[in-house]
Amino acid sequence: MTDDTLLSASGATVSPEPLMQMMQGLHVTGIVQAGVELGIFDQIAGGNRLATTIASALNADPRGTRILLDALAALGLLERHDGYHLTALAETYLIPGRSSYLGNMVNILAGPWAWEGFPRLAEAVRRGTTLTERPWETPGHEFWETFSPSSVGAISGPGSQALAELMEPWASPRDSLDILDVACGSGLFSLTQAAQHPKAHATLLDSAEVLDLTKETIGRLDLAERTSFIRGDAFEVPLAGPYDLIIVSHLFHHFSEERCLTLLSRLATALKPDGRLVIHEFISGAAPSTTPFPYLFSVIMLTSTGEGEAHSLDTYERLLRESGFTSPEVHPSRGMPSHFLIAGRAG
């Protein structure tokens, strides 16, 4: 037994190392965020491997650059031998421009909202809600203008393709495929569907600011003539329809069960009798130790929203039943620890 290992009350040996790593989580996030923001990984991918030349290229201080490079090496994102080299992890996910790029996730998970909310987590626990003046679910919140472009690529791309593959046997024989994408963000989930079905038409619902950011994807997929927009709040704006397919990706976790039921009931009236509703969400319910992400994500919702959390599968099944839908099929997503819940209208 080493000096830093003690006996627990049960007699087992316990090292403090895991706890120390948890307490350093804030530092780790800041190190990765700085590496992405400064373009460290792009420099090394381009062949610039010395601290002094990287500092010069970035117009940064040589000492500060060296310290950051060594810290990234300590985290396993770089290797240090004859200069600095990318590890497989960094080369796969942290090179801008590649389809697998995940660096934009720091804008979502480690943006200014996170640094504002988490230092006051204990007080949020006492109150049971966020302490921010404008929760994320507030219509027009500036977070969504950051989220939408940051979620394209390796974040939404694999999931949107997975959904298209799941829905293909159902969608392909249909004479039409009218799609409503609620709180669409990048719009990639509905636009991927539309791109694979010549008779499909996608209606994107979100704030005007977010919808403006979808135009690049619409143009890239050549869907301008088969895309329309609904600007406003999904709880209030007329939904039009009816639609063959309604997609709601990562929206319900911002709201209480009561608000989720309200929205689901609205969506049921906008869906064709033989249509399908797709919910794409983080699902809790399994043991936190085996499926940690939804439970950790719920803490983000506690600090950032009024009543949000990652709801359980049992909760979704009940809410769907109460709002007029069938029991859902459950399928894993790709690219994120999410699941697709696919339901039809009951009766």
Compose a concise summary of this entry:
By secondary structure, the protein is α/β, with parallel strands linked by helices.
Kindly report the spatial arrangement of strands forming the biggest sheet.
Answer: 7-6-5-8-9-11-10
* Radius of gyration, CA atoms, in whole angstroms: 23 Å
CATH architecture of the largest domain: 3-Layer(aba) Sandwich
Distance between the termini: 65 Å
The CATH topology assignment of the largest domain is Rossmann fold
The CATH class name of the largest domain reads Alpha Beta
Strand content: 15-25%
- Overall pLDDT metric: 91
Secondary structure tally, helices: 17
Q: H/E order of the elements?
A: EEHHHHHEEHHHHHHEHEHHEEHEHHEE
Uncertain segments: none
Secondary-structure-derived class: alpha/beta
What's the total number of strands? 11
What share of residues is helical?
Answer: 40-55%
- The CATH homologous superfamily of the largest domain: Vaccinia Virus protein VP39
Number of domains: 2
